[in-house]
Amino acid sequence: MSDSVYQVIELIGSSSDSWEVAAQNAVREAAKSYPDLRVAEVVEMDVLIENGEIIAYRTKLRLSYKQTSRG
């Protein structure tokens, strides 16, 4: 096994349906810019409330991706 280096980014995904869909949205968008995603860790979940009703679920993720070598 060769040595590897991983970068970590934090993203917040949102959804009007659930925290799970919010996480999926964040991963889907991150995959467009970071093609070698490896692990997503849920850091925090919250909701936006308006007039006593939940209007959005938000999931903060810490994502790691394998850094490509620049030789």
Description:
- The chain has a single domain (6-66), classed as Flavin-binding protein dodecin (Dodecin subunit-like), CATH 3.30.1660.10.
- It is 21% helix and 54% strand.
- The protein contains 1 helix and 3 strands.
- The protein has one helix at residues 19-33, and strands spanning 6-15, 37-50, 53-66.
- A hairpin with a 2-residue loop joins strand 2 (37-50) and strand 3 (53-66).
- The radius of gyration is 15 Å and the shape is elongated.
Short description:
With 71 residues, this protein is of the alpha+beta class. It has one helix and three strands; from the N terminus they run E-H-E-E.
Strand content: over 45%
Mean pLDDT: 92
Number of helices: 1
Biggest sheet features: 3 strands, antiparallel
Class per helix and strand makeup: alpha+beta
- Work out the helicity level: 10-25%
The overall strand count is 3
The CATH homologous superfamily is named Flavin-binding protein dodecin
Order of helices and strands: EHEE
CATH architectural grouping: 2-Layer Sandwich
CATH topology: Dodecin subunit-like
Which descriptor suits the 3D outline? Answer: elongated
Q: CATH top level? A: Alpha Beta
Query: How do the strands of the widest beta sheet line up side by side?
Result: 1-3-2
Low-confidence stretches: none
- Using the CA coordinates, give the radius of gyration: 15 Å
What is the count of structural domains? 1
**Roughly how many Å apart are the termini?**
18 Å
